[in-house]
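User: Some background: our group keeps a shared notebook of sequences we're curious about, and every so often someone picks one and asks for a predicted structure to add to the entry. Today it's my turn. The entry only has the sequence so far, pasted here. Could you supply the structure so I can complete it?
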Amino acid sequence: MKKIELLFLALRLPVDAFMITIAVLAAYYYRGTINVPSLYGLAPINDYLNLVFYFIPLCLLIFALTGSYDSRHKKTSLAELLSIIIAVSAYVSIMIIELFLTKTDFFSRLVILFNWAFTIVLVFAGRTLLGLIQRILYYYNYGTRRVAIIGRDEFSSSIASNLGEDKGLGYRVVAKLNPGDHLIIELDKTKCDDIIIAQSNLSSEQIQEIASYARLNRKTLKIIPDQFLLLFSHMRLTQVVDFPALELRRTPLDGWGRIFKRIIDLVLSSIGIVIASPIMLVVALMVKFTSKGPILYRQERVGLDANFMFYKFRSMKLEDCVGEDYGGEAAEKKWEDLNKNSNEADGPVFKIKNDPRITSVGRFIRKTSLDELPQLFNVLKGDMSLVGPRPPLESEVKQYNDWQKQRLGVKPGMTGLWQVSGRSSISFDEWVRLDAYYIENWSIWLDLKIIVRTFLVVIFRRGAY
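Assistant: Of course. Here's the predicted structure to add to the notebook entry:
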């Protein structure tokens, strides 16, 4: 770990302690500005400070237990905020229990409530400021980690490109090496800090040699897994009768996970329909009065257990919409010509930026994702989920290989990791990798993060077109 990383990691502790102290002062003085009667009156500030100084070590301990000071995992801003909310809530709850058990009667309950809110805001602000300073230093190439990528295929080039896109991440690609007889000599010349193996066809002897070099020279080694290694990363040791066995871990969406996800889908889709109803009415009128044909476009898609009818606001000219109820054979032929000559995606998907079939209103509602709103009814019905892999066409699924079919293992969703990945031109195999990661690592928090990031993508227009 570099000195700058250790410095900023160490700074988290005193910055958190300072922000907790500032939070109680802010809560105390803010309570004093509100004309709300208190049963015992507002105690002297020293009483509150003594109480908080007594509890600060407990709060820092809770932060540590929730992974705030873990150098191995870098959290997103949303994950950081959620972690702080959980930790501070636990800290304040223990404080209230302590005051109750000791029958302390001098405190103002509003100060405790304000202290909870201010602590969350200020601790998050302190960590955000530290992160911003660190990113600025990284941007000017101070303390960055020098990365050597082993692999010369398209996938390794994609990794190098993504690492180089954001200088604030703290990585600088210094070499892309081709596995060969003199690989260790070439690695040593790079003076790298991290080694990333991004080519899947290395022999076990080559990987062992690289691992030994990394261990002896204190380099961090990361291996981007191929499909086979990714499969084994989800194995767990179990037992069949008296014999040990490896069991492929199924998605957390089995059992209670599926039940919780369905409850969340029902609640959020119902709320979404109510909130979005005026917007859907306006979009429906725009579609109706600017082009002939039905307002909604219906198309059969592949679901988890059966095919279902998928809804969108119609964004194309009627004669260009594929389907018997729309443009018929002529529209089908036009789509086939575009797919053959203008498709900008690889694999069994169709993607084109300037689709000539789209109406002017259709271009707007696609750009703002308003055409997707009717899918809230698909979610309410249970055909789709708010978050999951995008539902494919039957014709696309017929072209899937066995590995790509794993994205069909859960209910399709309105949004997913691909839509919020920030990239609009990823390959179909990378798309499947993201879906596979989601399926194997599903959690309620992951769904909530994807939903929040979807709103940010729509607002700032970053990501897929």
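Suggested note for the entry: The radius of gyration is 27 Å. The chain has a mean pLDDT of 82.
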